[in-house]
Amino acid sequence: MVRGRNTGHRSFARRQTMWKVVFFIGLFIVCLGFYYATQKAEYIWRWNRVPQYFLYEDTIEIRSKIAGEVTSVTTKGEESIVVVHGDGESEQYKVPAKGLMVQQGDTVYMGDELSAYKKWKPGLFIQGLILTMELSSLGIFFGILLGLFAGLARVSNNPALKWSSITYIELIRGSPLLVQIMIWYFVLGTLINTLLARAGLPEIPSLWFGVASLAIFAGAYVAEIVRAGIQSIHKGQMEAARSLGMTTGLAMRKIILPQAFKRILPPLAGQFISLIKDSSLLGVIAIRELTKATREAVTTSLMPYELWLMCGLLYLVITFSLSMFVQYLERRMVD
Length: 335
What we know:
GO terms for molecular function: transmembrane transporter activity. The chain is an alpha+beta fold. The chain has two domains: 58-121, CATH 2.40.50.100; 124-334, MetI-like (MetI-like fold). It has helices at 2-40, 124-154, 159-173, 177-198, 206-231, 235-243, 248-278, 290-301, 304-334; strands at residues 55-63, 68-76, 79-86, 90-96, 107-108, 113-122. The strands form two sheets. A four-stranded antiparallel beta sheet has the order 4-3-2-5, with no helix packed on it. Helix 2 (124-154) packs antiparallel against helix 3. The model has no long low-confidence stretch (mean pLDDT 88).
């Protein structure tokens, strides 16, 4: 009997190994086919130029703002103070001593280079990646708050709260995110900034209209996830809590929501991953997130294959990391 079980296990293990080998062979064939297609298209890969879109060394030039004479050059350690006297005016510049290009008594004109130094700067990919993560984080944070409130209102017995929540959810889910971004930027954004300008207040940057569109869009879906999670908890839980003297709000906070949260965590993670990918639409309102940054890089470099593949890989890194984090939270809750 034991020998039969062992034979069955070995057979199962062999089948599993065989199918894993089939998977890697299939993956290899797909990659090979892709490479073959690019060779037939006579595309020249230039992966060696990709790193500059992550980090590059820029030359910072310090130029004179006025025309005149360099009257003083004082060096202290690694820095020099250059003083230029012009026609009734004087300018002082703090420059690196290593890159100093003028000396006392020199005549300089407006725009002449006084000093230059090298500095490492984040490339378009890093800039876009950081902005994408900022936008997504803000959208997720406000989306959770809005969705939690709307979800609770959705299951409320108060008609005003319930109908308001239903109206909000149906309005948002009934139109594409791209259209909502356009409405936020071109309609609501214009109206709000016009009113602020007439009141003498500073205008709101387009970034915040992008965050608002993402948060409100995510909030509608989070509200339905929260509602489904709350309604999945047996009614007896609430009745038992009320019989112990708890108010509805206290029972919801202490009994229902903690249990519902475990159930809604996986769909919430899926919604947030979707929101990260949806943030790529914000490029249409001139927000330089990862997709727009990649589009700009492709325009100047003419390397569409390498840069778009790298862009997809960066999105995958973000979404996979979030997915792993949520799985970690799920395991912690089970433990």
